[in-house]
Amino acid sequence: MMPLPRFKLERPQSLTEALQLLGEFPDALPLAGGTDLLVSMKQGLYTPGRLVDLKGLKELATLEINPEGAFLGAGVKLSTIRDNCLIRERYPALSEAAGVVASPNIQNMGTLGGNVCLDTRCWYFNQSEFWRNSKGYCLKKDGDICRAAPSAKRCFAVFSSDTVPALIALGARAELAWWDGESTIHREIPLEELYREDGIHRIALKRGELLVGVRLPAAHGIRSGYLKYRKRGAIDYPLASVAVAMRMKDGTMRDVRVVLGALASSPVTASEAMELLEGAQPSPELLARVTELIGKRTSPVKNQAGSPAHRKQMARVYAQRLLTRLTA
Amino acid sequence: MKTSSFSYVGKALPRIDGVAKLTGDAQYTDDIHLPGTLVGKLLRSPHAHALIRNIDVSKAEALPGVRGIVLGKEAPICFGILPRAEDENALAIDKVRYVGEPVVGVAAVDERTALEALKLVEVDYELLPALFDPYEAMTREDVKIHKESEVANIERRATLEFGSVEEGFAAADHIREDTFFKAAITHAPIETHVALANYRDGKMTLWSTTQVPHYVHKAISRVLELPMDRVRVIKPTLGGGFGGKGEPFSYEFVACMLSRKCGRPVKIVHTREEVFMSHRGRHPMHMKLRTGVKKDGTITAVEFQNLLDGGSYGSYGLVTLYYSGQLLTLPYILPAYRFDGVRVFTNKPACGALRGHGGVGPRFAFEVHLDRIATDLGIDPVEIRQKNALKPNTMTLNELRITSCGFEECLEKAGKAIGWNERRGKLPRGRGVGIAGGGYVSGANNAIYFNPMPHSSVNISVDRGGGVTVFCGASDIGQGSDTMLALVAGETLGIRPDTIKVISADTDTTPVDLGSYSSRVTFMAGNACRSAALEVRRKIVPIIAEKLGVPEETVQIKDGIASAQGHSEKTLTFAQAVVLAESKGTSIYGSGGYTPPKLGGSYRGAGVGPSPAYSFGAHAAEVEVDEETGVVRVLKLVAAHDLGLALNPLAAEGQVEGAAVNALGEVLLENHDITDGGQHACPSLLEYKIPTMLDVPDVEAILVESVDPEGPFGAKECGEGSLHPSIPAVVNAIYDAVGIWLHDAPITPEAVLSALKKGEQP
């Protein structure tokens, strides 16, 4: 057995109460499905004094899909996102992404918010205290060097969420909230602005700030999809992933968004590829050229299964396949 | 004997413990709670190779809640599963040899306190250079992992030679040489290792997740210096072994030491990471094969070199080493054969036995090598196997006695099921089929330690209600040996197997069986059980005959009702017969044992390999290779396995399917790899990739029945040999799909892509 470190469990009855707790206690962490955090806590990676349990908060449970767009509460289970017929119809990339997170059991526990705020992962970090002590601690926890890239000054832990590339491709905005001491303050930002290219300071949340949900624009005519490269059929984080959303108008590609996952510490928007695709007519030659540009500015390091070059190559192959599928 | 003449044998029998397991009722070791039980934990070495200068436990001892601490010097007697390799201590005394080696044992009132105490123990290590590469370890005289090794870190070199190898090569029309590498895999049973020890009134009781209660019994007695009659080892319901619980382990001794010291029960439960560090799995093997053949594919000579990376301790390694050489003479006729093998120590978790022990690496290598030879010669891979196939009632050149052998039938059936003739070489690029063969022991002919006793013994008692209870030391590790015993006893006695009780694997109440390893239990415990049941039958039949007034030879019993042939109106229940017997002053019991016949040669190494019977198999795979990603998907796997006779087809199919899936993980996903610092590269079931349901294709198990003359009702091994051929079948199918040969397993997408790039090298 690996026991959890001791912590106090807070069970707020409202979002306001949750935000107050998170604001008041600097050592508090929010707990959603717990499928990732509790494992990390058992490994001694996080030792929060309190866990603020978000389960059952109705403000996070909203699931609204209408012709103008959608609002998906952070507390919605991944299995709901996977199965909801409107999401499948209008935002297939998101439904596909939710359906390849870990396994169906974990999708039943894990939440959209948890996956959007998923910690970055690294072979040198996601290990037990015993292992890290034996190998030597790393920058992300207790150490002073990045073991994957010892000459680097920053942490290269990998952005590993499946739903985020899909959400960014679909134009999602994140709704955030925090307690300023007197009232709840809300703000909304484009989802991509939530992430930073740093395995440690990976997410641009203020202290005590919580993701309430994500807002999606109207899906009129949007085609989208998500492909994930992994070692086995389930229970695997992505080694490379790609999400694409676009419209087709008069035989040309419009509003093209291509987002890569698991190749850096944050999701990567493949802007060169997008530029080339925008307004163009799809053809095998074009897609081949575009594929060359995929992952151009990413430089994954050896901190996951599979070599960095292979992971990058897979992002290219999957991007080409996905574009081919969506433009067919 | 024909299947149709049996009452229960050959029919699907759900396992007798199935309902208890499904409902959560079954008692696994960790389900046993004794009042006042302390939690035991092991402090493990963070270093791969170091001297222990000093251990200071004073701060840990002072921690409130700590009840006892034990050190290696308190139990200096060495243990090891093989008498020739007793090189381990319950806890390291003056040296650690791998990351994770247990150094100190702590018992405390709860888990957190025990873990806290571990942090307070101060161990002063002097670091030594660590060796991880077996080639380096073979030559480094300056770094000795075990000072007893005569040459560098070589534990043992084994050479075997049969027939005239030079003449064989001289007579060959074609000679081919290939090198192969097969990485380690580990067992990954769902239940981690657990021990609960209770020392009371001078007697030690140990409940443990072990495949070998008898060997643990002996080892505990020896290391703790307690007479064997003061030690009782019980194996509760067990959640999978696959060889990973097949020898005594540190935690078992430490639980006992702590319980004796504290006067309280002590339980040690391994984390998943600790299971990975304990290992004892497949040896990484660096292999070289050279084979001479005639133009028609007839093998003239084989030369095999194998370097086994043994890790830090002996474990079963010497047997692995010899098995790897000896079992290569199955399932083909080799007229001349030379083996040169070396097992080397490195600073990694010790390797030992894992499902298919010893033969899996060499089988992978040889079957791919054979396909390459067939390709060189332009011969069909099935044909070259048929041409060289071993025949029944023959002797291999290394003196393995072959009795029943259904290898050719396996080849034929596997080929047919995969559509060999219509599809081999004819599928669109990217799709392919492959085939491979194999053979394995049905139990080792020789016990691990020399003794003249039966390998398995069974007692059967019958109570006044007509209830039958089988007592046997055999260890049901999930393979279903309890159900097998009930079936054999039931068939012999004419009692429904699902009504028979089985008490097994308790050294106080059950007679000795050597344990669940080497695929020996059905053959050996099955025979012992049959012999015990026959004794019961011999005692009860005369009583029935007398009561019914018929000749003894006409008595038949079915479903617990005795009758006489030709006199169906005359019946007596088995229970009535038992009461009658008891009224005559004797309670009914039976006792039987199984000792294998004397077999094998007299040369050095001849002791490993002989078995009273061998299973054979041929597997065929269909794969799809994605040439852009390098991902190999197995679409179908056919496993034709000669198991002599399917006592319980339901269980047998489960074993064959399970073994085939085990092999799929081994060929495509699993790698028990160690980092350059000695840490396990993937010590969790997230990062160590056993296949999920989505990775498993349609598996078709074909049970081939060659009816073994010495097996119980004709049965032989079925749970291990059915692993071997799947690995090369997949590799050979990849060649058919995209024209590349892969010589390193597991096969990664990167390796496929790089081979595609290079053409069909190596």
Descriptive report:
- Chain A is 30% helix and 22% strand.
- With 328 residues, chain A is α+β, with helices and mostly antiparallel strands.
- In chain A, the strands form 3 sheets. In chain A, strands 4-5-8-6-7 form a 5-stranded antiparallel beta sheet.
- In chain A, a hairpin with a 4-residue loop joins strand 6 and strand 7 (184-190).
- In chain A, helix 5 packs antiparallel against helix 9 (163-169).
- Chain B has 762 residues and is of the alpha+beta class.
- Helix content of chain B is 28%, strand content 25%.
- Chain B has 19 helices and 29 strands.
- A 7-stranded mixed beta sheet of chain B has the order 3-5-1-12-9-10-11, sandwiched between helices. A 6-stranded mixed beta sheet of chain B has the order 7-15-14-13-8-29. A 4-stranded mixed beta sheet of chain B has the order 18-26-27-28, sandwiched between helices.
- The two termini of chain B are 49 Å apart.
- Chains A and B meet through helix 8 and helix 12 of A and helix 3 and helix 19 of B.
Q: Summed up, what is this model?
A:
By secondary structure, chain A is α+β, with helices and mostly antiparallel strands.
CATH topology of chain A: Enolase-like, domain 1
Spatial strand sequence of the major β-sheet of chain B: 3-5-1-12-9-10-11
Through-space gap between termini of chain A? 51 Å
- Count the E strands of chain B: 29
Mean pLDDT of chain A: 96
Structural class of chain B: alpha+beta
Q: How much strand of chain A?
A: 15-25%
The shape of chain A, in one word, is globular
CATH architecture of chain A: 2-Layer Sandwich
CATH T-level fold name of the largest domain in chain B: Aldehyde Oxidoreductase, domain 4
Q: Please state how the strands of the largest beta sheet of chain A are arranged side by side.
A: 4-5-8-6-7
CATH 2nd-level architecture of the largest domain in chain B = 2-Layer Sandwich
Oligomer: heterodimer
